UniProtKB/TrEMBL annotation:
Entry keyword Signal: yes
Organism: Panicum hallii var. hallii
Protein's recorded name: L-ascorbate oxidase
SUPFAM superfamilies on file: Cupredoxins (SSF49503)
Highest taxon of the lineage: Eukaryota
Family: Belongs to the multicopper oxidase family.
Segment forming the signal sequence: 1-22
Keyword Transferase among UniProt keywords: no
Keywords, ordered alphabetically: Signal
Classification of source organism: Eukaryota, Viridiplantae, Streptophyta, Embryophyta, Tracheophyta
Amino acid sequence: MATPRVAAGVLLVLSALALAGAEDPYLFFEWKVTYGTKTLLGAPQKVILINGEFPGPRINCSSNNNIVVNVFNQLDQPLLFTWNGMQHRKNTWMDGLPGTQCPIAPNTNFTYKWQPKDQIGSFFYFPSVGMQRAAGGYGAITVVSRLLIPVPFDQPPPESDHVVLVGDWFTKDHEVMARHLDAGRSIGRPEGVVINGMGGKDLAAAPMFTFEAGKAYRFRVCNTGIKASLNFRIQGHDMKLVEMDGSHTVQDMYDSLDVHVGHCFSVLVDADQKPGDYYLVASTRFIHDARSASAIIRYAGSNTPPSPNVAEPPAGWAWSLNQWRSFRWNLTASAARPNPQGSYHYGQINITRTIKLLVSRGHIDGKLRYGFNGVSHRDADTPLKLAEYFNVTDGVFSYNQMGDAPPAVFGPLHVIPNVITAEFRTFIEIVFENPEKSMDSFHLDGYAFFAVGMGPGKWSPELRKTYNLLDAVSRHTVQVYPRSWSAIMLTFDNAGMWNIRSNVWERHYLGEQLYMSVMSPARSLRDEYNMPDNALRCGKVVGLPLPPPYAPAR
């Protein structure tokens, strides 16, 4: 496997053996977050850099490593990082969203400490405050299996392990975009697509990747954009899908794959074509004024330019829906644990509750808002998790102001902090229904779920007959096509305050999100960690004495 880019922030790796098996290994990073100027689509613009880089440093680790990231905020705005797809078992404190953590003030620092506990796969991080995600500041997280856990790939292993961060890109400044949304205006359509922080003519200046004939290569592809689904393909080469959002998949072959906002997958590609240059292409899907970007893969020693004939992406979303139906969980593969993924028989568990989330759109004082079931979320001055932990929720938020089903008659949207509760360790079905003419994509922090069903029109209980109750892929992000629905199932066994959100960041910013409070009645360290000593305080919890700690695990 190729050595990832070495960041200045990687200071030290401590071996678990050196600690006599007391803890898993530690990886330390130090990040200085600044603004910089980059020319991505022909015009210079302000972007968010980490240690002078965009994209930011790759976090390359193994399952259960302890990741310590000391973030120095040298922006002129508050800052948080969230770790898209990391489950943070028992550790909602490190999720890095305004509902769980006070922001890092300008010219201060904060140290995150988290584990990819029992996880493997391809993920990414990004800044979560306001519209900062539109300015960059994102980077890859790659989690490999521990040495004793077999990886279900053909031998020999891939020659190199490459990250491909693709996303739509806007040339508007992220603060200008926020002001447009605050004024009731749209951010419009993206001006282009970037691949690993490069766009336009810069992508053709030099090859991004090199192939050696006869070798195999792994590509970890993530859609780090804010609005558009993308189609990913490599000219003249088929791709073997092997992993998706942290799960090993059945290894089918594809000539192109749709990757939706917030979603990641891994493919293996054989360098089995005539030596030459080939295009690696990402094109927008389902929007007018389609945009595309092409990087170059060069076979070693080649001086043959790529053919100008590049296949167009498929048309329409019916093709994309059918492709989703082809994805299957690899039931015999071991992921982060020795036991096979398929040993968890989710289809045999009784559903205890169904939550139907209908995307809601309306205007408040003439300004556009989004939400679920008639409730549009707004962040509170005191992070919701801190208010809950210190028992000072009065005046901050009230639980369960949104029902489990859309109201029979919609009135004006209610703009409030939207927090609902889930009973600890219950198995719940969540249905997302998107009545809009455009794509949506949803993410659930703290969990992986089974995306069991998807289809056009409105959802009804009879559609459960179409669910995949055997080998749906366990993942953290699911797309919902225009005027369509998607259904997921999961056990809420990770105590904390967890964000359910649209990955379409314009909608997220305008309220299409909520928080799920999952509390263990035992108040035990077996189920959740106490607030860490370095936790930042703001709002109503400043100066308050700590509540009684959780009981030791038994």
